[in-house]
Design goal:
Layout: E1 4-10, E2 14-19, E3 24-28, H1 44-47, E4 51-53, E5 56-58, E6 64-65, H2 67-73, E7 75-76
Antiparallel strand pairs: 1-2, 2-3, 3-7, 4-5, 5-6
């Protein structure tokens, strides 16, 4: 099972992510920002509180992205 082992918030609304299978890339959260609980991620200071945890990426108020979602939507860096 793939896990997120590192996640670093970038601007605007992207995360630099490293997965347990060695892939590295960018995950763009922009498509989710108008959906319910994810609206809070529009706040830049809150967005920067992202961290890798429980295999995915989480924020303090329980927003999260699963490793499966991130893996599928990852824009890989070469």
């Amino acid at each position: 099972m793939i896990k997120v082992i590192n996640a670093v918030p970038n601007s605007p609304n992207t995360l630099s992510v490293e997965l347990s299978d060695g892939r590295k890339g960018t995950f763009d959260v922009s498509p989710y920002l108008e959906c319910g609980i994810f609206k809070e991620l529009k706040n830049p200071s809150y967005f920067k509180q992202a961290k890798a945890a429980c295999g995915g990426v989480v924020w303090p108020n329980e927003q999260d992205f699963s490793p499966e979602t991130i893996s599928v939507e990852l824009i890989e860096h070469q």
